[in-house]
C-alpha cells in the first residue's frame, strides 16, 4: 500500500509540473457522415476466408491453424498442461498432493455406505472414481479438481430407494442390521436396489451431457461470487452435520427432504447421552493436529506446499488401530454387511428410467452445480478460468461410466479437492496420481484401513471444510459494500434456502432469486438529466455539481442501463414527464374518425366500403414520431457500433428517424442541436451538417475555446 501511494503522489506531482494541450478541429459527425468517410472492415477480413458464389450455391470456408489448435485445446485441455508442464517446479507438489488425496480417499470409500445409506461394494466405488478421474483429467478444465462420489447426493434418491429396499428399509432410516446372506430373497432385493442406483446414475449423466451440449453452463454467469460462496458454505455445514455420526459414534433416525437438517440435529441432540468418548477424543486430536500443521510451511522453488499431515494421520492411526483395540466405530462393520466384494460392470436397467426422471434431474442439477461452483472457487484462487459447458459434458460422461459399476452419482469431491489444492497440486497430474494411489491401495492393502477410526476421518474432513465457512464472518462487510446490487441479499437467500430446503431445492431458489433481482434492477432504470460544465465538453448530472449549466432549448437524457422490453415503458414515462408532455386518451368519436377519415370525403355517409388489403401495412407510429409532430428534434448520441449494426439489421431507420440523428459523441449532438433552430425533417440532411468543432485546451491557460 505504501508503494502504491508513493507512486500515485509522484504521478500527481509530475501531472502538475507538465502542461498538456490539445487542439481538435473536425466536422460534427453523425453515423451517416462518419460511415461515408470511414469504411467498416468486411466480415472476411480476419483469419477465416469465406468465398460464396450465389450462382452455384457453393460455399468455401478455410479455417486457420490457430483456430483449429484452439478448438482442440478446448475439447482436450490436458494437451495444454502436458505440453507446458514445468517438471522442476510442479512435479514434487503434484506427487505429494496426489499421494495425500489417494490416502484420504481410501477411508472415504470404505465409509461411503455409512453416509450414503446404500451398501455399495467399495471396489465398485473405487473403480468408478478412478475412471471418472481419468475422464476429467482428459476433458476437465479445472486444474485442481478431484472427482469422486459425494454422499450428500445420495440423500436425493432416498424416495426411490424406499420403493426398492433390500433390508426392509432399515439402512435408509439409519439402522444398520446385518442380514442373513443365506436367504435368497436378500440377494434378489439387494441386486434390485443396486440396479435402481445404476439407472439413476446413468440418467443423471445423460441429462448432464444434454445440458453441456445445449450450453446451459451460461446459467452460472448469472450467479454472483457471493451466491457461489453461500452455496459452498451451506454444503460445508451439511457435510459437518453428516460427520456427527462419526464424531460421536452414534446412529440416528435419518430424515431426508426439506427441513431435514433440523430434524437430524434434534435427533443427534437426543442421542448425545450415548456418545462415545473415545471417538470425541480422537476427533479433537485430529483437528488440533491439523490446526497446528497450518503453521508448518514448506517452500519448494518459491511455491508454498503444506505438510501432508492428512496422509500421516491416516497411516499412523490405521497402523495403531491394527495393533490396539480402540473401542470406537470403524468401517469394518460396514464391510461385513456387504454381501459382495466386487460386482462386475453391467448395463443399467433402462425400463425404470421414466420412474426416476425427476430425481435424476435434481441429481444432475446439484452434481453439475457443485462441480462448477467448486471449480470457479478454486480457479479464482489461481487466476484462471474454467469452461462450465465443458465440465458439464465431462461430468455427464463420468456418471454414464459410473453407472456401469453400479455406483452413485459422482461430482467434485469437496474435501479431496481442498487437500489437493493446499498440498501443492498445480495440474491434473495430481488427480491422476491420487486416483492411481487410491485404486492401488484398495486392491492390494484394503484390509489395512478397516480399523481406522471413523472419528479420525471426520476430523480430517471437518478441518479441511472449515475455510468455506469464513464467508459468514465477512458477511457484514459484504452488506456494507454491495447494498445497491443486493449481493448480500443473494448470499443470505442462497445460504438459508440451501440449509432449510436442501441442496437441490435451495439451488433452484437461488437461481430463481438471482434472475428475479436482475429483472428488477433492469426495470428500475436510472435516467439522468445532464447539463454542461461551463466552457468544457463535459456533461454531468444537474444534481451532482453546483456549476452545472442547463443548455437553453436542449434537454440531455442519459440512460444508465441497457434499454430492454422490461424498462422501455419507464423510459417513455420519464421522457414525457421531463418534456412536460402528457398522454391524452382519445375520445370514441376521435378514434372513429382516425379509422374513417379520407382525403376527398366522397365516401361520407356510406355504410359499406370496399378496400384492398394486399398492400403491406404501414408500421405503427413510434415515440420519436410524437416528438417530431411536436416540433421536438430527437438526437441519439454515444451508441456503440454493435447497437448501430443491430438497428440496421432490424430496419430501425425510417423517415421518422434516420442515421443523421445518431451522433458519435454527446458533444457532437449538442453542437448540432445548437446550430439548428427547430429544423424541419427535410433540413436534417447530410449535406447541411457542416458544423465544425474546434476545441483548444491548455493546462496552463485553464480554459476552453469553442467554435462552431
TrEMBL record:
It is a multi-pass membrane protein. The keyword Transmembrane helix applies. Signal peptide: none annotated. Its main location: membrane. The chain crosses the membrane at residues 119-139, 197-219, 231-255, 352-374, 425-443, 455-476, 488-518. GO terms for biological process: transmembrane transport. One of its GO terms (cellular component) is membrane. The keyword rRNA-binding does not apply. It is found in: Membrane. Gene3D superfamilies: STAS domain. Keywords: Membrane, Transmembrane, Transmembrane helix. It comes from the Eukaryota. Coiled coil: none annotated. Residues 91-492 form the SLC26A/SulP transporter domain. This is Solute carrier family 26 member 8. It comes from Phyllostomus discolor (pale spear-nosed bat).
Amino acid at each position: 500500500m505504501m508503494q502504491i501511494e508513493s507512486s500515485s503522489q509522484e504521478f500527481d506531482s509530475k501531472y502538475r509540473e507538465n502542461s498538456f494541450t490539445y487542439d481538435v478541429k473536425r466536422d460534427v459527425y453523425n453515423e451517416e457522415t462518419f460511415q461515408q468517410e470511414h469504411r467498416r472492415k468486411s466480415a472476411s477480413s480476419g483469419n477465416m476466408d469465406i468465398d460464396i458464389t450465389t450462382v452455384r450455391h457453393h460455399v468455401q470456408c478455410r479455417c486457420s491453424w490457430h483456430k483449429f489448435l484452439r478448438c482442440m485445446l478446448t475439447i482436450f485441455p490436458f494437451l495444454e498442461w502436458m505440453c507446458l508442464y514445468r517438471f522442476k517446479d510442479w512435479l514434487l507438489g503434484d506427487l505429494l498432493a496426489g499421494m495425500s488425496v489417494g490416502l484420504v480417499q481410501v477411508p472415504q470409500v470404505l465409509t461411503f455406505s455409512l453416509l450414503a445409506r446404500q451398501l455399495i461394494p467399495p471396489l465398485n466405488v473405487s473403480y468408478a472414481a478412478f475412471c471418472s478421474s481419468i475422464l476429467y483429467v482428459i476433458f476437465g478444465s479445472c486444474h485442481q479438481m478431484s472427482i469422486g462420489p459425494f454422499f450428500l447426493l445420495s440423500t436425493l434418491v432416498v424416495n426411490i430407494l424406499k420403493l426398492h429396499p433390500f433390508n426392509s428399509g432399515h439402512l435408509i432410516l439409519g439402522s444398520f442390521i446385518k442380514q442373513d446372506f443365506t436367504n435368497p430373497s436378500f440377494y434378489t432385493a439387494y441386486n434390485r436396489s443396486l440396479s435402481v442406483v445404476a439407472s439413476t446414475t446413468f440418467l443423471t449423466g445423460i441429462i448432464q451431457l444434454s445440458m453441456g451440449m445445449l450450453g446451459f453452463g451460461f446459467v452460472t454467469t448469472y450467479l454472483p461470487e457471493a451466491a457461489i460462496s453461500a452455496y459452498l458454505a451451506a454444503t460445508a455445514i451439511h457435510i459437518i452435520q453428516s460427520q456427527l455420526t462419526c464424531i460421536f459414534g452414534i446412529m440416528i433416525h435419518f430424515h431426508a427432504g426439506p427441513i431435514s437438517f433440523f430434524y437430524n440435529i434434534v435427533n443427534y441432540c437426543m442421542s448425545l447421552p450415548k456418545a462415545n468418548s473415545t471417538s470425541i477424543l480422537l476427533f479433537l486430536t485430529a483437528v488440533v493436529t491439523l490446526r497446528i500443521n497450518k503453521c508448518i510451511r514448506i517452500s519448494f522453488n518459491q511455491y508454498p506446499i503444506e505438510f501432508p499431515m492428512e496422509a500421516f494421520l491416516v497411516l499412523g492411526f490405521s497402523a495403531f488401530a491394527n495393533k490396539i483395540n480402540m473401542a470406537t466405530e470403524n468401517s469394518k462393520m460396514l464391510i461385513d454387511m456387504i454381501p459382495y466384494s466386487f460386482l462386475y460392470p453391467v448395463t443399467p436397467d433402462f425400463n425404470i428410467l421414466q420412474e426416476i426422471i425427476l430425481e435424476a434431474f435434481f441429481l444432475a442439477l446439484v452434481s453439475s452445480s457443485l462441480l462448477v461452483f467448486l471449480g470457479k472457487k478454486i480457479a479464482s484462487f489461481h487466476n484462471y478460468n474454467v469452461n462450465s459447458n465443458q465440465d458439464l459434458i465431462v461430468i455427464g460422461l463420468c456418471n454414464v461410466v459410473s453407472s456401469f459399476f453400479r455406483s452413485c452419482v459422482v461430482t467434485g469431491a469437496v474435501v479431496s479437492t481442498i487437500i489437493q489444492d493446499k498440498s501443492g497440486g498445480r495440474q491434473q497430474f495430481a488427480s491422476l496420481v491420487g486416483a492411481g494411489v487410491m485404486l492401488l491401495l484398495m486392491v492390494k492393502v484394503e484390509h489395512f484401513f478397516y480399523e481406522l477410526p471413523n472419528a479420525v476421518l471426520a476430523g480430517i474432513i471437518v478441518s479441511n471444510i472449515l475455510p468455506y465457512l469464513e464467508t459468514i464472518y465477512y458477511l457484514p462487510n459484504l452488506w456494507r459494500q454491495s447494498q445497491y446490487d443486493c449481493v448480500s441479499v443473494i448470499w443470505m437467500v442462497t445460504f438459508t434456502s440451501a440449509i432449510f430446503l436442501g441442496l437441490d431445492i435451495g439451488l433452484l431458489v437461488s437461481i430463481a432469486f438471482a434472475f428475479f433481482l436482475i429483472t428488477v434492477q433492469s426495470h428500475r432504470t436510472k435516467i439522468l438529466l445532464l447539463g454542461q460544465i461551463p466552457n468544457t465538453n463535459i456533461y454531468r448530472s444537474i444534481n451532482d455539481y453546483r456549476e452545472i449549466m442547463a443548455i437553453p432549448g436542449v434537454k440531455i437524457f442519459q440512460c444508465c442501463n441497457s434499454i430492454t422490453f422490461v424498462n422501455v415503458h419507464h423510459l417513455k414515462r420519464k421522457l414525457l414527464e421531463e418534456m412536460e408532455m402528457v398522454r391524452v386518451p382519445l375520445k370514441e368519436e376521435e378514434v372513429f374518425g382516425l379509422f374513417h377519415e379520407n382525403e376527398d370525403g366522397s365516401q361520407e355517409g356510406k355504410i359499406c366500403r370496399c378496400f384492398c388489403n394486399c398492400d403491406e401495412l404501414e408500421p405503427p407510429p413510434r415515440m420519436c414520431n410524437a416528438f417530431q409532430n411536436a416540433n421536438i428534434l430527437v438526437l441519439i448520441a454515444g451508441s456503440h457500433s454493435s447497437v448501430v449494426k443491430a438497428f440496421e439489421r432490424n430496419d430501425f431507420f425510417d423517415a421518422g428517424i434516420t442515421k443523421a440523428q445518431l451522433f458519435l459523441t454527446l458533444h457532437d449532438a449538442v453542437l448540432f442541436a445548437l446550430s439548428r433552430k427547430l429544423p424541419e425533417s427535410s433540413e436534417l440532411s447530410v449535406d447541411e451538417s457542416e458544423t465544425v468543432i474546434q476545441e483548444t485546451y491548455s493546462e496552463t491557460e485553464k480554459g476552453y475555446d469553442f467554435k462552431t
